[in-house]
Design goal:
The protein has two domains: about 170 residues, Glycogen Phosphorylase B (Rossmann fold, 3-Layer(aba) Sandwich); about 170 residues, Glycogen Phosphorylase B (Rossmann fold). By secondary structure, the protein is an alpha/beta fold.
Length: about 350
């Protein structure tokens, strides 16, 4: 059974796929210990090796030995580091999407836990020749918190959903009765605050639309679970769980708006996907989100329940506002593409390889 691909997985594959389109002579091998949970782009070789090695030994011993034997020009670690020692004879590229644990209050249970995290990230950076990140916000946070040989290169994400067929659902004549949240059940995403406000609006008879929730389910607290249960019982919350991409496109494109109340993002892919699909966006002005949305979103602070509630009600009632956000969203989303990001990635990689010769 093929399991859901994460945002990082989809983004990495989107980047590799475009790099291969731009450079036909490029050879990319995906080296992995366990069976992949995704389909690789055409041209990417799958190398499942050392499957009987324990995970830690595979990364610390098997991987460096394989690299030393086969001498690739570069090794890319796209998943926030975990770079082993012993890779001095190749160019190490690390994508550090963010260092959000340092920005989220109460993330670490102790000072020692934070020190351990900082030490791990610093080691990854020290072992890296080319450091990639995905937003100016993340770049700034990395610079402020760690010692660097060179500045991180910002390679923004592009949309990962195929917009083909979305026009039917985003047509001005299409009517909808739901908002959508995309992102999984994670406390840092602000979903609990969203549910409190949304259900409160229904209690006060100020809202008629439903809220569709997509993403992996994680009932992280009793209060959160009770909110979900109340919303479902009232018929105003619909849990979809993990949704296949083709169905997610239809859900996003057909919604009144995407509500994305997250305050802690290294980028913010769901708002970009929504704007690409012609779905208005309501979100926050925190961390990297404004970089992605620009002037094309309705911003509201989830900590201010009145402001947040009024934003949701306004979006439901004001068709012209939704049309304006949709038009602005298309223009904003066009600033992000895998073509541009892949070209920047390849140029930076070429420079790093030349510098090490």
């Amino acid at each position: 059974m093929q399991l859901p691909a994460t945002g990082i997985t989809k983004s990495t594959l989107g980047l590799y796929g475009e790099c291969l389109r731009q450079c036909e002579s490029l050879h990319v091998s995906a080296m992995h210990r366990r069976a992949l949970q995704c389909t690789l782009p055409s041209g990417v070789e799958s190398l499942q090796l050392g499957r009987f090695f324990p995970r830690s030994a595979w990364r610390s011993v098997y991987l460096p030995a394989y690299v030393a034997l086969h001498k690739p020009d570069a090794v890319h670690f796209p998943w926030n580091g975990s770079v082993p020692n012993g890779l001095a004879r190749t160019n190490v590229v690390t994508t550090l999407n963010d260092v959000l644990p340092l920005a989220i209050p109460g993330f670490f249970k102790s000072t020692q836990e934070e020190k351990t995290y900082r030490s791990k990230v610093q080691k990854d950076i020290d072992r890296t020749d080319l450091l990639i990140t995905i937003s100016d916000y993340s770049k700034s946070e990395i610079i402020d918190n760690f010692k660097l040989k060179t500045e991180p290169v910002v390679v923004p994400l592009g949309p990962t959903l195929n917009s083909k067929g979305a026009s039917l659902y985003s047509d001005p004549g299409h009517t909808s009765d739901y908002f959508i949240y995309v992102g999984g059940y994670d406390p840092r995403k602000g979903i609990e605050k969203l549910l409190k406000v949304f259900i409160g609006l229904h209690r006060d008879n100020r809202l008629t639309s439903k809220l569709v929730l997509t993403g992996s389910k994680n009932y992280f607290s009793n209060d959160f679970k009770q909110l979900i249960e109340e919303g479902v019982r009232r018929g105003v919350v619909v849990e979809k769980g993990y949704v296949q991409d083709k169905d997610l496109v239809q859900l996003i494109a057909g919604a009144i708006a995407l509500i994305y109340p997250s305050k802690y993002e290294g980028f913010g892919l769901p708002p970009l996907e929504a704007m690409t699909l012609g779905c208005p966006v309501m979100t926050t002005k925190y961390t990297a989100v404004p970089e992605v949305c620009g002037d094309a979103a309705l911003y509201a602070d989830p900590e201010d329940h009145i402001e947040f509630a009024n934003g949701i009600v306004t979006l439901e009632r004001d068709e012209q506002l939704r049309l304006n956000l949709k038009t602005a969203g298309y223009k904003q989303a066009a600033k992000f593409s895998w073509e541009v990001s892949a070209a920047k990635f390849m140029t930076s990689l070429s420079s790093a390889c030349q510098a090490k010769r």
